[in-house]
Amino acid sequence: MDVKRVVVGIDGSPAAAEAARWAAAAVHGSGGEVIVVHGLGSSELARQAAISASRGLGFAPAGSPPPTQDHRIEDWWCQPLVDAGVAHRTIVSDCDAVEALLDTARSEDADLIVIGHRGESGLIHRLMRGLSDHLLDHAHRPIVVVPYHPDRQPRS
Length: 156
Hints:
Layout: E1 5-9, H1 14-27, E2 33-39, H2 41-56, H3 70-77, H4 79-84, E3 87-93, H5 97-107, E4 112-117, H6 123-128, H7 131-138, E5 143-147
Parallel strand pairs: 1-2, 1-4, 2-3, 4-5
Helix pairs in contact: 5-7
């Protein structure tokens, strides 16, 4: 399979960093690109709204920039892609992670979707169903779930 465009979900976790490394390796040498997706979802939007409201109420300096994920995503979360020297770009969506990944994969005609897996297997995870379960139910393209093991060193 010739992989030219990969969508990878990212959230700042070590599992997402491992997924980004995998995605970089998948497009390395093909001239392809990695599209980094972060879905804010309703909880993050509510947090940002509270911060914005506090700025309006005088709790934060009026001249301070509004909160944003973009700087953190590019400077920290995309470091595995920068280290690998692959082309990438970032999309921050107001949707939850699943919808953001599915919408981006569809609109960008991605070859595959890559996510990290933290290894949660407890009862609550099974009841709530993980990100990978929801993607498997709705994606119309291959999905790679990259396992993350805290005791294993990252791939170079």
